[in-house]
Design brief:
Blueprint: H1 13-46, H2 54-77, H3 81-103, H4 113-130
Amino acid sequence: MKKKERRPEEPGSQWISAMCEVLKGGVLAGVTAILTLLACAVLVSVGVLPVGGMYGAVLAVCVLGALTGGIFAVRKVGSWPLPAGLGVGLVLFLLLLTAGLIAYENAGLSNGGAGILCACLCGGAIPGLLARKPKKKRKR
């Protein structure tokens, strides 16, 4: 039996595969955020969660979604974990911004979008920071 020879990867293929994994993580983050927001809407409808606390719940959902997608992307990418996690947070924010622009005409950074952007980026950065390998200590 012959072993399959491994072809050397082209220089740009690692970058493209990393971007694909970041996009997949962003989609996973979006699905997680949508399902969690649906659960929050049910809690508001039942009366468990007050309507005034919904903005805080949205920020928590953004962190949770970006955290979920960031963990996925950071594990798949391997190298450069912080940019991968931040990329997932940015993809999630762009998905939420697009959905907001479709549903409402005045959605944007000035109407609470800055907090959502920060929540998405922080949620994506957490797995990126935790996945960093410690630097090796130099011998004296």
